[in-house]
Structure formats: structure tokens, C-alpha cells
Sequence to fold (176 residues):
Amino acid sequence: MKFFTKKTIAFAFSLLAAGALFAQQHITNFGVVDTTKVYEQFFKNSSAVKAYEEKRAAFQEEITRRADEIRSLQTKLQEAQDLGMDADVKSYQDSIRIKSSSLKTYTQQKNTELNNIKNNLSNNNEFYKNLNRTIKKVAENEGLSMVINLQQSNSILWYSPAVDITDKVIESLEQQ
Fold:
């Protein structure tokens, strides 16, 4: 009977040890990703963002050119007023009014166009599909069972930088 009890105790101890090892193998490993940082880093060098920036610069150049033209007319208007050239004053005032209205309309249209382009960049579904695939790949390579988005979880009070895979995700996206 003593032999049977020792075997039972040894067997139970073995089961507990195996259970502890099994439990250790199923510990959930978390990772975090700062998707805003990924987005900014990834798109900073993208051709779509460069095209947006070029278009924005071209629009700004045109706005500056038109504003300079209006300022030049305002200078001429002031000179005409100082010299009492009433016919020229009226002509300059009309030109300034028309060009100012045109500039305002142009600026509004171009700002709307730039906002639409910017919104399309930030809502790029293909990017997010690629981001999700990349996060999955990096997480699996790191042995993680869950990845949390730092931007969408207000419940994260603290995390170790060791679980932050943001830079690895950016590197992986840049290699594609």
C-alpha cells in the first residue's frame, strides 16, 4: 500500500509539473503598435505623399503669384489716388476686386482638392490591409498571440517598450 501511495503521489506530482509546463506554454504574449507612427513613417516617403506635397507647393506658388499681382495693383492704385487719376483709380479698384475674388475662389477650390487628396491618403484601404498583414507577420515572428493598437486603447496604462513592435512593422513595410 505504501508503494501504491508513493506511486500515486509521484504520478500526481508529475501531472502537476506537466500542467505547470503546459500552462507556461500558453501564456499570452502581447505586443503593441503605434499605428499613427507607422502611418506617418510609411507615407512620409511614399510617392502619393510626394505628389500631394508637389501639388500643394504648386498651388501655393500660384496663390503667391496672384497675391503679388494684387499687391502690385494696390500699389498702382495708391499712386493713382495720390496723383488724382480718377479713371485709373476706378480701373485699378475693379481689377483688384476681380482678382481678389478669383484668388479667393481658386484658394477654396484648391484647398478642397488638397483635403480630398489628403483624406484619400489617410483612408487608403490597401495600406491598412498591408499593415494588418505586416503586423500579423511580425507578431508571428516575435511569438506574440495578441497585438494592441496604442492609438485605439485608452485602457493601456503602462507597457514595456520590449513589447512595442512598431519599429519592426515599419521596417517590414519599408522592405516590401
User: Anything to note?
Assistant: Residues 47-83 form the longest helix (37 residues). Residues 47-123 form one domain. The radius of gyration is 33 Å. The chain is about 75% helix and 5% strand.
